[in-house]
Amino acid sequence: MFYRGSVLSFIIIVLLSSCEIINPSEDIPAYLHVTSMTLNVKNGEGSESQKIIDAWVAIDKNLIGVYELPATFPILEEGEHEIQIGAGILDNGITGTRVEYDFYTSYNINYEFTPGITDSISPIIEYSELADFVFIENFDGTGVKFERKSGNVNITQTSSNGFEDKCGLIELDDANNFMEIVSTEKFQLPSDGNPVYLELNYYSSNTFQIGLLNELTQDRFYNLVVSPKNEWNKIYVNLTEQATTLKALEYRLLFQSYKTDSLTSAEIRFDNIKLIH
């Protein structure tokens, strides 16, 4: 009886050990909830408007994932670790091109993680010290920094339905169905592949194009068509490749629009235009 009982006990122990091998115990993660990200600006950096949609999260400088905000995600670490959260945007407003924005700082903090506990944070970020704002137009001053380049429609300043106070307004109809405006200021852009972005708030019932004018040759280069939006939207336009390819000595900013035939009239509103490299 003792022998048979010992064998039975041995079999039970082996079976239990096998179950642990097949189904090993799992570590209980901590969780982090990121509600949203806030942009703080300094003098000369324009509006605090932003459209940060993703959190690029690294633990101890190792990327663990990109999470659409608001997001709750597991942290398979315990104790104090360095967490770094970068700001993710849609490059050129395209859903399939999600990138970490070069000109925002990341949110860095040492955090104590406890398994099974969910902590919430709302990161505050700024523009990078390396960001060079070569053109800003918020339409709140006297006059506007654009003029008509071709066509017979110009941009005007209005306090009606602005994004933040005043905005720029372009009105198209059957008799005035085309506009092309150019910035009154000219600027230089890097041609070595360093990032160049245009930030823009817009509200539009019509498509429009964004481009650059070569100041020396007066050649126009349009690289993006923006679709209508029936509410204020923010877009980050990547002009890096254009500036690298063109290598012009000086540029001006261009906007162009042809009224869609199916529309009797159309409006395009701009605000918080920033060109940064």
Shape: elongated
Number of structural domains = 2
CATH topology descriptor of the largest domain: Jelly Rolls
Output the structural class.
mainly beta
Estimate the strand proportion.
over 45%
SSE pattern, N- to C-terminal: HEEEEEEEEEEEEEEEEEEEHEE
| CATH class term of the largest domain | Mainly Beta
Q: Tell how many strands the DSSP assignment holds.
A: 21
Largest beta-sheet characterization: 6 strands, antiparallel
How helical, in percent, are the residues? Answer: 10-25%
How far apart, in Å, are the first and last alpha carbons? 85 Å
Quaternary state reads single chain
Unreliable stretches covering 5 or more consecutive residues = 1-20
Calculate the mean pLDDT score and round it. Answer: 91
Note the total helix count: 2
CA radius of gyration is: 27 Å
CATH arch. level architecture of the largest domain: Sandwich
Task: List the defining traits of the structure above.
277 residues; mainly beta; Immunoglobulin-like; Jelly Rolls; six-stranded antiparallel beta sheet; five-stranded antiparallel beta sheet; 21 strands; 10% helix; disordered N terminus
Structure commentary:
This protein is mainly β. It has 2 domains: 30-126, Immunoglobulin-like (Sandwich); 133-276, Jelly Rolls. 10% of the residues lie in helices and 48% in strands. It has helices at 2-22, 240-246; strands at 30-34, 38-40, 54-59, 62-68, 71-75, 79-90, 98-100, 107-113, 118-121, 124-126, 133-137, 146-151, 156-158, 167-173, 178-183, 197-204, 208-214, 220-226, 229-238, 251-258, 265-276. Strands 11, 13, 14, 16, 19 and 21 form a 6-stranded antiparallel beta sheet that branches. Strands 3, 4, 6, 7 and 8 form a 5-stranded antiparallel beta sheet that branches. The protein is elongated. It starts with a helix and ends with a strand.
